[in-house]
Amino acid sequence: MDDRDEVDRIVSAWQVERPDLDFTPLQVLSRVARLARLLDRARRQAFSRSKLEAWEFDVLAALRRVGPPFALSPKQLLQQTLVSSGAMTNRIDRLVGSGLVVRRDDPNDGRGVLVEMTSVGLTRVDAAITRLIDAEAAILAGLTRTEQKRLAESLRRLGLSLDEMTSDDERRATSDD
What we know:
Layout: H1 6-17, H2 24-49, H3 54-65, E1 71-72, H4 74-81, H5 85-97, E2 101-106, E3 109-117, H6 119-139, H7 145-165, H8 168-175
Antiparallel strand pairs: 1-3, 2-3
Helix pairs in contact: 2-6, 3-6, 4-5
């Protein structure tokens, strides 16, 4: 069985034409890009089965991670999701309209508002995270536990090095897509 993939074939052709170049970055990042597309599809399917869009999951997941009463200020949600203020206001409005969150007065700040997840939102986000973890575990099934941990550590280090090269504004702009 040939265990070469499309990236191997592309790199082999390039190496013939450009033997002066090290194609390791292409080998790594082409595979990361392919995996990103597959993961995005798996995420969307997991969320869709739970009647959520990806952006809805992101906001509800931020609320879920803080524990009961599953409430944050809009500013805290901005920090958790890295979207613009205008995008967050729009998202909160839409989630309120869908019955997934409510706005309530902040008892610690007379002028402040908290966004609190409803029981419907909690049910959906819990179903979505379960489906997502199941889908991602299936994707990683071809790797041993040790390989998965090694890969996670390598990707974490790569992400941290990219974070150092990327400004907050650039990260926020790409997360609004």
